[in-house]
Write a structure and sequence with these properties.
heterodimer; A: 355 residues; alpha+beta; Rossmann fold; OB fold (Dihydrolipoamide Acetyltransferase, E2P); five-stranded antiparallel beta sheet; 8 helices; globular; B: 224 residues; mainly alpha
Chain lengths: 355, 224
């Protein structure tokens, strides 16, 4: 934990008040509805909100405390804005140079590498007005990287793009995740982006952090509103372990067992993420051999909780250490006589690859 | 030749005055406009009002107060006397100062509008890329405000060329030093030399018209 942020910002009708410890590696998603304060929190960390009070420690540097407010240009950050904010008076190369020239470190990330990582080599001489939305964001990300940041911040970089452009950019963001060794703070209100990219999750609601921790942990905390969503579920890291070309399936191994999913163009051994929604998981007392459902896992019931549907319950299942969520009716629980600690079979109707 | 040597002198003086005033106004007006754009200070409104004042004030009123302040008993007058510069009224330098104050809103307002049009996005982006505030101003704000800079220059120049009241109050009518074009026209009319007046007045009319056409053309260019 090397980013510690205890920050307050008071505005008319909005108060941000968080006390967070964020990990120094991987992608941390700041997730919440619009108006929850996630962008404001990001801007506070970047030093873009001068009225922000509190303390902010990044690695061994104090960016802000009672007597100190390090201005934005002295914080080693990279910031990708929702609207890219490229400089319209410069072409793409000019925008990149703007960042590279001001980068303080001698070992600044090499320009060619960044240009290749984001595949913008063919755009260098183009004016920024002539870029598509997706290209603009890629250039903005490259520009942020060329300033050799200690911390990369992204404020809904996909929000201004349509669905097709989003899926164009997503692979680049995933590459950042695997190829960069700096922490990334990623603001989003779209859970599918979070599920694909994030390792850690900070759940924001009305200016407060109501939950923070590793993604799977926060997703399966029944006291948080994430579990109350209709598409509540878990995201599990998995490895492709077998291809079944006859049935067009592939086997994915995860910590608690293995699952089958539709065959995708992923080589054996490659890492991926699967999302399993609570509404796609049903329970049986014995191993159902007469069911069409492929994915069956032996699990132990951890607990039950009420949902906002009076008929339904949400239950957490422990599959050899991996937590799954299942949504069942209260009637089913009573008819099957399900209890905490009991062993059951979880049938999973749908396994979606998210990364 | 229809124009007399005195007419040519007045034209030359007017162009010299307008050029000097325009250059100085860009130097002074740009920081003022930049400050007005970015500040949240309570001083913003009063300063903004002071900058706009010459727009609504009769030039004679402005000239009168300048005459008093710059005169031997005025605070600035005593300052310039003490500094060994002498008194500014009825000199070219005095005219420059008066014209700068008179044309200040014509420089500051287009600049301020141009700075405001940039929005905070590019400026914040520059700050996150380690550009200091001064660096942001020179490498991002100023280049992006170029249309405003051009408008400010053209407006300041044209407005100074057409100035009359302030000149008459603090400059008087000294050939080659303070007798500018508009005063020269006034003199011609006083002397019933309507022919001469026509030439000079017509030239000023055409000049003003061309300036406005030019500005409109440039605005269309930058918006397309």
């Amino acid at each position: 934990m090397t980013i510690s942020a205890c920050l307050q910002l008071t505005r008319p009708e909005f108060v941000l008040n968080v006390d967070l410890n964020l990990p120094s590696s991987g992608v941390t998603a700041l997730y919440g509805a619009s108006g929850s304060g996630k962008t404001t929190l990001l801007r506070c960390i970047a030093g873009l909100e001068r009225e922000c009070r509190g303390t902010l420690q990044v690695k061994d540097e104090t960016w802000q405390d009672e007597g100190r407010f390090l201005p934005t240009h002295q914080r080693r950050i990279g910031y990708v804005f929702q609207e890219a904010n490229l400089f319209p008076h410069l072409d793409v190369a000019g925008n990149l140079d703007f960042a590279a020239r001001r980068s303080q470190t001698a070992d600044s990330r090499n320009r060619a590498g960044v240009i290749e990582l984001l595949a913008i080599g063919h755009l260098l001489t183009r004016g920024v007005e002539k870029l598509s939305g997706g290209e603009r964001q890629r250039v903005a990300i490259a520009r942020a990287l060329l300033s050799s940041p200690q911390l990369l911040m992204m404020d809904e970089p996909l929000a201004s793009l349509d669905a097709a452009r989003k899926s164009d950019i997503m692979p680049f963001l995933e590459r950042l995740h695997t190829e960069l060794d700096i922490p990334i703070l990623y603001v989003s209100h779209a859970f599918d982006e979070v599920a694909r990219l994030a390792d850690h999750l900070v759940l924001l609601d009305q200016g407060k952090a109501i939950g923070a921790g590793p993604l799977d942990e926060v997703c399966t905390r029944l006291d948080l509103p994430l579990a109350q969503r209709d598409d509540a579920g878990v995201v599990i890291d998995a490895v492709v372990s077998a291809h079944d070309r006859e049935y067009h399936l592939m086997r994915l191994d995860f910590a608690g067992g293995s699952l089958h999913a539709g065959l995708k163009d992923l080589p054996l051994g490659s890492r991926t993420r699967v999302s399993i929604q609570a509404r796609d998981v049903s329970l049986a007392l014995s191993c159902p051999t007469d069911s069409s459902i492929n994915n069956r896992l032996c699990a132990t019931i951890v607990d039950f909780t009420e949902t906002h549907h009076p008929s339904q319950l949400l239950t957490r299942l422990d599959v050899a250490g991996t937590i799954l969520l299942a949504r069942i009716t209260r009637r089913s629980r009573d008819q099957l006589g399900l209890n905490v600690g009991q062993q059951v079979w979880a049938q999973i109707k749908s396994v979606a690859l998210v990364g | 030749m229809i124009l007399s040597p005195d007419d040519w002198l007045a034209i030359w003086l007017t162009l010299k005055l307008a050029t000097v005033v325009t250059l100085l106004l860009l130097l002074v007006g740009t920081p003022i406009a930049w400050w007005l754009t970015g500040t949240g200070s309570w001083l913003k409104k009063p300063i903004s009002a002071i900058v706009t004042l010459p727009l609504v004030l009769p030039p004679t009123v402005l000239g009168f107060y300048l005459l008093i302040t710059l005169g031997p008993n005025g605070p600035i007058g005593q300052l310039t006397l003490a500094a060994g510069i002498g008194l500014l009224p009825f000199t070219f330098a005095g005219l420059v100062l008066g014209s700068m104050i008179y044309s200040l809103p014509f420089a500051v307002q287009p600049l301020q509008q141009a700075f405001e049009a940039i929005g905070r996005g590019p400026l914040e982006a520059a700050a996150t890329l380690r550009a200091s505030p001064l660096n942001v101003f020179f490498t991002v704000a100023l280049p992006l405000a170029r249309p405003g800079l051009i408008t400010a220059a053209v407006m300041s120049f044209a407005h100074t060329v057409g100035e009359f009241g302030v000149v008459l109050m603090i400059g008087g009518n000294i050939p080659g030093a303070t007798r500018v074009l508009s005063v020269q026209i006034y003199d011609h009319v006083e002397a019933l030399e309507y022919g001469q007046s026509h030439w000079l007045a017509g030239a000023l009319l055409l000049f003003s018209f061309l300036v406005l056409v030019l500005l409109n053309l440039m605005k269309r260019d930058s918006s397309s």
